[in-house]
Amino acid sequence: MRLDRVVIGMRLDRVVIFGLFILIGITSCKSQKKEIENGEIKTKVFEVDTVSLIRNPGMGWTIYDDAHDQVADAKEYWIKQDTIAKKYASVLYLRWRWSEMEPEEGKYAWEYDENFKSLVQGALDRNLRLAFRVYVSGQDNVSQTTPEFVFDQGAKFYMEKGGDGEVKSPYPDDPIFQEKFKNFIQAFAKEFDNPLQVDYIDGYNLGWWGEGHHLRFIDEENREKTFKWIIDLYGNTFKNVPLVITVDSEIGHDLELIHAINGQGYAVRRDGYASTWMPEAQKDLLRGLFPKSFVVAECCYWQDRSIESVNKIERVYNWDSWADYYKQVVNEALETHANYLDLRENVESVRWTRDANLEVHRFIKKGGYRIAPTQISYALKNDKLTIKHLWKNFGVGVVPNNNRRWNYKFKTNFILLDKDDTIVAKWIDENAEPSQWINNEVFEYTTEFDTKNILNGNYKLAVAIIDATQSEINQLKLATKNTELIQNKYTFIGNLNIEE
User: Is residue 380 located within the same domain as residue 343?
Assistant: First the structure.
């Protein structure tokens, strides 16, 4: 039995209890039974679900509407993506132009655009959460990404190559652009700074494709000042939903660390997995930020190209099939501890699930986090309930409870319920912190709770990881199987008899 870390929840002042839990450890190692009783000691050994799709916040396969071309028609989109969304995905990622999020000043898509609202509602109806990137640069975009009213009011611009010719793009250090974009972001956050529906927001998005490339300024001396401005704009406006930045961009990783990752608590993403555009040094960078930051992974945007044409572009690689390519994508995602990976739009999602279905399931099994108690033992003596609990993360990612905007909101709760499944007591072990549970280590805690004010009787003991800011609304699903769920949410541990 490997115990890599031991955290004592509360000091045990009774030698007899200490002795009982030594016995628990010995008994648990020797017995093959699911539940073991030895006097007042009970132990529950949990079966772990290592394969099912678990739609916990902060992780998962992502489908896109990437509106670099025309925005998707919601009805057609959900007809095409319905099965894939239900079987594999956890997040709908909307990458839309600012010009379509706010085509007229103060007229927002979430209020007036029925197609936008249908895309969002379609995700929520399928138990998907949301993520967003808002384009302001027009490079390679089918139409202008910044609303015309911004330029009408005097914002300076330059021309970039759009999908149908040249389009205007704003200088991000222009004060009129900054004023209008600030107004938009404040309205955007008012609507979508909701962690029950939104997993993350891309909080930078300048430059080509919103990835921070080929930046242009009215005055180059404004480069760092402008970067800090937009990072702080998102960071000071979104209080509850995690923000991410495309890491190691043109602005430089030192500034990303100072202003975004350390300064505003951003997580990181990298676009271009399994390509020459993502060198080993960037993979090392991502690994070095783990587990402080969760990682959003995205492969290249190949659309409907053949694998032969991709090989000609890449040159370094020579994949025999799309299955080979996707295997490398998943390998790199797992090696860099990715919480998210992209099935993207329908042409790619069909190809992923048809040609590399094993790889899709491999990321479901190992990507992100998959947490479960492996064993919980408990003993009651002298009005003190002592619980020893062991946890393990079977995924390669992190429970992003340590993200600044989640702010350690998920707590390990033990729940006592009566015969009618009414909650009698609820206790938190503050030491059992989910963001510390790293892949394949075992985390053990022992804690003690007072039962002297609980009436005599027979009770059920259960466990759950609950969002303290939302109480019963938001919980992390535990990767257990063949286990009773009380009220369809609390994982049953065992019975507890309280008597004088």
Answer: no
26 has pLDDT over 80: no
Of 442, 441, 419, 440, residue with least CA distance to 496: 419
Report pLDDT digits (tens) over 405-454: 999 999 999 999 999 999 999 999 999 999 999 998 999 999 999 999 99
What is the rounded CA–CA span in Å between residue 152 and residue 208?
23
What's the pTM value of the predicted model, to 2 decimals?
A: 0.91
Q: Token match 């007591």: residue?
A: 425
pLDDT at 434: 98
Q: Distances in Å between the alpha carbon of 336 and those of 139, 243, 341, 344, 439? A: 29, 19, 11, 20, 12
Please give the Cα distance from 259 to 244 (Å, whole number).
12
Q: How far apart are the first and last CA of the chain?
A: 36
Residue 243 has pLDDT above 90, yes or no: yes
Which of 366, 393, 412 represents a domain boundary (last residue)? 366
Model confidence at 55: pLDDT above 50 = yes
The domain boundary, picked from 305, 339, 366, lies at: 366
- Taking CA atoms, 400 is separated from 3, 35, 52, 269, 361, in Å, by 23, 32, 20, 14, 22
> How far is it, in rounded angstroms, from Cα 128 to Cα 198?
9
Instruction: Indicate the Cα dihedral angle 431, 437, 441, 446, nearest 10°.
Output: 20
Place of tokens 């002042």: 13
The domain of 395 spans 5-52+370-498
Tokens of 473: 């609304």
Among candidate residues 89, 85, 94, the one with its CA nearest the CA of residue 67: 94
Give the per-residue pLDDT at 35: 42
Say if residue 199 is in the same domain as residue 312: yes
Two tokens, residue 324: 């080979």
Whole-Å CA distances, 69 to 76, 141, 188: 15, 6, 22
Report d(CA 304, CA 351) in Å as an integer.
9
CA distance 232 to 260: 8
Is residue 446 within 8 Å of 388, Cβ to Cβ? yes
Average pLDDT of the residues in 194-211:
94
- Could you tell me if residue 114 is left (phi over 0), alpha (psi between -120 and 50 degrees) or otherwise beta? alpha
CB-count exposure of residue 149 (10 Å: 0-12, 13-18, 19+): middle
